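Friendly challenge for the regulars: who can give me the structure tokens for this chain first? No prize, just bragging rights.
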Amino acid sequence: MSSISLEREELSFNDEIGKEYIRLRRVSLKTGTSKSIAISYAIKYLSETKIKRPLHIADFGCFDGEFLSQFKDMSGIDKESRLYGFDYNESLLDLGRKNIPGIEYYKKDLFTDSFNEYKDLFDIGFCVNTLHEIYSFHSKNGVFNHKKGINSVMKSIENMTSTIKDGGILIIFDGVASIHRDKMVTIGIKSEKDLKLFNKFFNEYQFNKIDYKQVDKFTFSMKYSTFTKFITKYRFLDNIVWQIESEECYQYFTPYEFNDALKKVGLQTYEMSLLSPNTGKWSKIVDIIGEKFNFPDEHILIIGKK
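First reply, four minutes later:
Bragging rights claimed.
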């Protein structure tokens, strides 16, 4: 495995980069943005269905277990309920076993390992900001195999679905691609500082080869998908985790393609929301010239019911 994203399964979360990833994740959970939104929807589902029995809950891509721990605290689920955390990084699992008890941790790769032993077991499965990493695995030296990426995502969704019991739900939260991804957009960078970060992005982004046309010093034309990659990666450009983020892409399915993916594996879309918590920050960095496009949707939360 040669690219940074491929090597992330061996990344130690006791080093500087790993600790910063954990810090950013905890900020997201504690401020009620991004990942914690998935918890709110799960609690809403439990309230609507009035399930009272001890539950089996899984987090696919569980990191250090803090997400599941927060869900348990917020949801008030039966104390006999069992929580399962799956991740492919042993360093994270060890961290969870040490610091966050009450979760059963297992080392699993979502798209290559078998989940037969968990068939029809879980009432709720979470997959939060995990599928884009699986999609990104198939990038090397700026060349990306989209077909392999999509096939791996679909196999992961299929594996997770097999573990959900009838009437249960799979909650996916991740980045989302725009239906306008292949159209052209013109943008204006607002400051010298942000122009420097814009150039850094284009010089260092390793996921795939991207391009733009310069109109003048602060104005550029590019595909909307390229602009989406830049603006959703902006917050990492001055952070040490950019070493990893430069190898990953958040956008692989449009909302329609997410819906079709769930349907293909036998799930009915129970609820779907598009979220862009950083639009206000983006508007301080860049203007979209003309009125053809808005800032892109950043996240999708989609719930499939079996």
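Residues 6-176+249-276+297-305 form a domain with the Rossmann fold fold (CATH 3.40.50.150). The two ends are 36 Å apart (CA to CA). Your move, everyone else.
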